[in-house]
């Protein structure tokens, strides 16, 4: 999704914002642009393409300015081309706007701006012209933005720079915005890592916040709720947390962080899980809501709750309206989201308004985190690779703990968690890496790969297939091993590769299905704690009771990562994808 960062202060804004915008790259983008003051006028430099390329094409680092706004665009409205990149200017060239979101009534607004000159196909451009009209009518920049906000429909956060005023003004709805309070100036940005090198003093913004920033002060007025209060917080993030360090990609850094994060998790602090378990225990039905990878966590949660005799239903956010007649007030929702900003889930919130809500989330200050009654923070730290890895694992672990606690199986869960912590170190050994590499070489040129498993293993296969297609562009499909004989078997030839996830629980039945595939010359990569004749490549996993799926998952993440790298791709930035999906 789009990334926004602005700075006004005593220091030169340009180096801060070049650094800052690079730290927002992970959100996914196709164009980059900036606006800054030069000799009393606003200069805009922007283009489609990578930040680095646009920076050097326009020599942006040679400029200096006391205030500036930078933006990465992930196209939603208008194709990927220079004219559609942000910032967008008004007719006078004195007002520049960067925007993250969608203006649903842009066409209507545009037709009311008939005398203005439009140069892009974006919805954003109406904002610049509307602010222009408001200021021409004598309003301050802040009042102009406030009036414009009152007229737009949809979820939109935007930041405005006016050549004649020192302050930058923004308004938040939907997409995240946070202030960074530096020694010599103030930042406003889509995310904290973009300015953490300069300050850890932040103010998180809420929907409806109209904010003006100057070099040493800020003013916030919530336009939707007068009771909203703001406090200055100190974030615990370090520059190291937000950087790749010695790793080639964020994705591998994040995969390799998992053992350490799991160790930290075993140290305890399950108060929120206990509280949430009380709600689940007394619920009529527990609905588990998520999107993409987080929906796989929901599926896993439903399966484990069923094992404990608790009724639950996994729902994708966009489907929630179809449950209108079955949701009752004594039902409980568990919302699973890494970013806490996924539009499909935010749009589902009205359907849950009469119910208790539990969140399993990574971003503790996100829109969804603020909407739940009990938040279970997964503590994964920044996840910058577009493909979710550590957030899947940690959300799944917390989901399992929640299920086990609700079922009175806390001791078993904590026992298995310790087993996971210990055995994970036995799993990540050279012999396992070398079989992963062998499998990656076999798969790297395939056009299509199938992932198989039964029961729990099938859910892990779904997640593995999603990961592979995202970062390698190989068609990957997960099929329940038990259903293979009902049709998909027709696809098998001697050039078919299948990755089978085979845990103890379903070992005999899955191997039986794999033999049928083998008999038709299919090639099988087996992920299991036991070898089998059917496997062409065998990658050994360790056991961890109810958390054995974590072992399989990490191997499958490493496999997808290696295939992407061997295909010469950038696993951190898959084409067409954004880290958090804030559009419907
Ligand atoms: C896949 C992936 C996505 C997200 C989905 C939901 O690797 O990352 O499928 O899981 O967009 O995002 P969150 O969890 O932020 O709600």
Q: What can you see in these coordinates?
A:
The chain is α/β, with parallel strands linked by helices and 584 residues long. It has three domains: 240 residues, Glutamine Phosphoribosylpyrophosphate, subunit 1, domain 1 (4-Layer Sandwich); 177 residues, Rossmann fold; 144 residues, Rossmann fold. Helices cover 34% and strands 22% of the residues. It is built from 17 helices and 24 strands. The protein has an eight-stranded antiparallel sheet, with helices on one face. β22, α16 and β23 form a beta-alpha-beta unit. α8 packs across α12 and α9 packs parallel to α12. The radius of gyration is 25 Å and the shape is globular. Fructose -6-phosphate (F6R) binds next to α9 and α15.
Task: Tell me the name of the CATH class of the largest domain.
Answer: Alpha Beta
CATH superfamily of the largest domain: Aminohydrolase, N-terminal nucleophile (Ntn) domain
Helicity level: 25-40%
What's the mean pLDDT score?
94
Please give the CATH architecture of the largest domain: 4-Layer Sandwich
Rounded to the nearest angstrom, the radius of gyration is 25 Å
* Count of beta strands: 24
How many helices in DSSP terms? 17
Number of individual domains: 3
Pairing-aware structural class of the strands and helices?
alpha/beta
Major beta sheet summary: 8 strands, antiparallel
- Strand percent estimate: 15-25%
What name does the CATH topology of the largest domain carry? Glutamine Phosphoribosylpyrophosphate, subunit 1, domain 1
| Unreliable stretches | none
**Shape call:** globular
Distance between the termini: 12 Å
Placed side by side, the strands forming the largest sheet appear as 3-2-4-1-10-9-11-14
Bound molecules: fructose -6-phosphate
